[in-house]
Amino acid sequence: MTPASAPIPSTTWAARLAPRRWLGPVVLLAPAGVWLLLLLVLPTLLILEISLVPGLRLGQPSGGYGLGNYLQILQPVYLRVIGRSLAFAVGSTLLCLVLGFPVAYWLALLSPRRWRNLLLVGFILPLWTSSLLRAYAWTTILRPSGVFNTMLTTLGLPAQNWLNTPTAVFIGLTYSFLPYMVLILYASLEKLDTRLLEAAADLGATPRQSFWKITVPQTLPGIAAASLLVFISTLSDFVVPTLLGGASSMNISRLIYNQFLGPTRAWGFGSALSMVLILAVSLAIALLLRYGDRNTVTEA
Amino acid sequence: MAGLAATNCRQNLSGPSAGGGGGDDGALHIYTWANYTDDGLADAFTERTGIPVVVDIFDSNEIMLTRMQAGGGDAYSILYPSDYMVSEMLELNLLTELDQSRITGLENLKAQWANPAYDPNNAHSIPFCWGTTGLLYNREVSPGEPIDWDFLWENQDALSRRITMLDDMRETLGATLKSLGYSYNSSNPAEIEAAYNRLLELQPHIAAFKTTGFENELLGGDLSVSMAYSSDAIALTLEDDRMEYIIPDSGASLWTDTLAIPATAPNVDAAYQWINFLLEPETASAAVERLYFATANQAAFERLPADIQNNQDLYPPEEVLAKSEGIVAVDADSTDLFDQFWTEVTSA
Questions:
Q1: Is residue A13 part of a domain?
Q2: Which H or E run contains B56?
Q3: Which chain A residues have a beta carbon less than 8 Å from that of B339?
Q4: Are B168 and A263 in contact (CB < 8 Å)?
Q5: Out of A145, A258, A260, whose CB is closest to B220?
Q6: Fewest CB atoms less than 10 Å from the CB: which of A128, B41, B62, B326?
Q7: Residue A56 belongs to some domain of the structure
C-alpha cells in the first residue's frame, strides 16, 4: 500500500481534531502573548506597585502603600509640567494638521498620478533617519549663529534666538511628526469619493462649501486618527524637548527621567508620573479606536 | 582576546556593555567619567598584567549609583565615585573595605588626602584626582571678564540664554548659596530658600542645565559662559585661546574623584592591580600629560613638566583653595529641601 493511495477516513480526522480546535489560535498567539506579558504587562504592573509606595527612593527604607505619590502630582509645580506637556502636544498636533492637510490634499487629489508614489516617498524619507539625529540637526539650524539666522540676516530681518525656547520645541515636534500626519491624511483623502464633489459643484456649491460640507466630514475619521497619533507621540516625546527646549521646557517625560536618573532618585514618584502618562496615552488610544479611521492608520 | 580589546574603541559611550555577570570574562571592567582613561593607559596596564581593560562611561554620580543599585553590582571591578557619593555608597554598603596590605604607593598621595572627611583613612576609596567647579567663558563674546558668580546675575540681560549651568543639583544650588555668602553644605532652610529664589531669578536667562555637550556652542560663540568642572574646562582652555576658566572669588566647590571597588565586584585581584598601577608616579604623570586632570598623587605631580605644574586653573594657589569647599552629604530634611527647590527651578 503506497502512502498516496491511503485514504484517511474523514470522520476519524474530525474526531481526532475536534477537542483540539482551540490549539490553533493558541499556538499562533502564544509567542506574541508571552512577549507582551513579560515585557509589557508585568513591567507595567511593577510600575503600578512601585507608584503606590509613597516617597520611595532607591536604597532607602520605605513605609507601606498609599496614594502619596499621586497626591504629590497635584502640587502646582508638577501640574504646570503636565500643562506644558499638553500644550506642546496640542500645539504641535494643530500645527501638523494645518501644515499637513494641504500637502495630503494636494498629494491625494491634485498631484500628477505618475509622480504620486515618488512624492510620497519623499515625504517619508526623513523618517528613515534617527530622531535624535534630526533633533541635533535642528540645534545647528536654530542656534544664534546657525543656518536659520544667517538666512534671516541676509534677508535684512532681525536674528532670532529660538534655541532653548518653547518655539524651538514646537518646530522640532512639528517637523518630527508631520510625515505621520501627511501619510494618514493621504490614505484617508485618497478614498474620498470625488463624484460627491462633482455633484456638489453641479448643484451650485462653491468650492469652499463643498470642502467644508463634503471633504472634511468624509475625512474626519482620518483627521481624528492622524491627530490622536501625533498627540500621543508628542505628549511623551523626550528627545526634542531635551535637545531643543533647554531649561525652558521641562515636560512629563523629562520629569520622569529626572526621578529615575537625576539627583532626587524618587522612584515611587517617578512611577506615579509614569502611570499618569500611561493612562493619558491609553485614553487617547481608546479615543483613536472609537472615533479614528483605523484602516488609514494601518494602511499608512 | 587582548589583541581584540586593543583594537576596539574602549570608551563605550552608547551604553554600558558589561551586562549582568559580564565581569566574569577575565577582563577588568571599569565604570568611570569621560577623559579619565584612554587607550594609552589601558594598553600599558594590559601589557603589564595581561588583563584586558573594558571601560564604560557615566556622566553623573547618580546614574552610576542607580546602575549599581538596579542590578549592575557585579558588572564592574572599579568605580570612580566622587567624594560625597563615596559617603552615600558607604551608607548603602555598596563598596568593599579596601585591604590596605594589598595597596602599594599610598605614601605618594598629597597630604591633604591622608584622612578625607568623606571616607576616613581612605578605608574604601583611593583619591584619584581633584578639581574645582567654576566658570568657563568665551572671551570674544562674553560681556566682560567674570571674577565671581555674581557676574551671571549682574549681566543677566546681556547673557540671556547664553549661559549653561551644570545639571547637578548640589553644584548649581551650592554655587548660588556661595554667591550669597553661604556654604555649599548649608542646612539652614532660610538660606537654601534664598538660594532657590536667586537661582529662580536667573532661570529665564539660562539656556540649559547641562553637564556635558555645551563645548561646541561655547566655542562657536552661541553661548558666553558655562558653569563647568575644571577637568572639562581646562582641556578647552588649552585647545582654544579664547576660552578662559575662572574659580569665582567667593569660592568654588572642591571635589575629589576616587577609585573604589564595589562590594560585589568580580575580579577583585585585577581591581587592586589597577589601583596600584595608578598610584605609580610614572603612570599617573604620563596620564596627566595626556588627559589634564589634577592628580592627587604628589610624587606624580613632581614629575610633571613645569608648564603643567604652574597651570593655576589645574593647580590653584593655596589662598584660592582656602575659600573653596568640598560638597558633603547633608541631613535628610535638607536633602528634601534641595530636591524640592531643584525640581521647582528646573521645571519653571
A1: no
A2: strand B53-57
A3: 263-264, 266
A4: yes
A5: A145
A6: A128
A7: no
Residue A19 lies in a domain: no
Q: Give the bridge partners for B125, in sequence order.
A: B260
**Taking Cα atoms as reference points, which of B72, B95, B61, B60 lies closest to residue B16?**
B72
Closest CA to B79 of B262, B251, B256: B262
Copy the grid coordinates of residue A61: 527604607
Taking contacts as CB-CB distances below 8 angstroms, the residues of chain B near A55 are none
Give residue limits of the domains in chain B: 2-129+256-315, 131-254+319-347
With CB atoms and an 8 Å threshold, state whether B62 touches A143. Answer: no
Strand-pair category, B28-32 with B206-209: unpaired
> Yes or no: is domain B2-129+256-315 CATH 3.10.50.40?
no
Can you count the helices (H) and strands (E) in chain B? 15, 11
Top-level class of domain B131-254+319-347: alpha beta
In tens, the pLDDT along B272-311 reads 999 999 999 999 998 888 888 899 999 999 999 998 899 8
Digit-coded pLDDT (tens) for B148-191: 999 999 999 999 999 999 998 999 999 999 999 999 999 999 99
Alpha helices in B168-280 (DSSP H): 169-179, 189-202, 215-219, 230-239, 268-279
With residue B228 as reference, give the H or E element that holds it.
strand B225-229
* Chain A residues touching residue B208 (CB < 8 angstroms): 164, 246-247
Identify the segments of chain B with pLDDT beneath 50.
1-23
